[in-house]
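Protocol step 4 of 6: structure prediction from sequence.
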Amino acid sequence: MNKGKFIVFEGLDGSGKGTQINLLIEEMKKQGRRVYQTAEPTASSTGGMIRDALGGFVGRNAYELSALFLADRIFHNTNPKNGIRYFIDQGIDVVCDRYYYSSFAYQGIDADLDWVMNLNLGCREIIRPDVCIFLDADTDSCDERIEKNRFDREIYENKVLQKKIRQRFFEVFDKIKDQENIKIVDAVRSIPEVSADIIKIYESIKEK
């Protein structure tokens, strides 16, 4: 049995990940692929602790958040019932909204970046994706989308931080460009244009 593909979407808050994930999965299913959609943080108890912190309900520093995300990510990979590894081994493609790249970019602002990266990249239980698709959008465009579609903002959802996070994403991608398959897609275009590029990326990795 061929293993499934592991596809990760990354981008700033408001970059359009949810819309593009749904469109890709729709195309994958049309092609007869079996697909499991997931996201981080997960629905686990650790994921709940993370969401409380991101929502501003519980104060945690960047090191605490990094450790919580690591624990949640290991669970996400290894859960024998609905973990990433389980589905990939069953020949099912996995599409994930956020992964360790977000830890590097978000928590890597206030925590030591190399420490955060080593925690994740050095953990054998954490699978590396077949491709990371980064939806690149300027902070003004993302902020407009957040304002239009959200009632409340999470702790990272302000333009000053988002500019730093976008810069950090590109710093991280430069650090790991030789070890990871990262595709940057211009997300400040029409939804069909962005979707067409993403489908081409998927086509390039699905039979490898």
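Step 5 (inspection) to follow. The mean pLDDT is 91.
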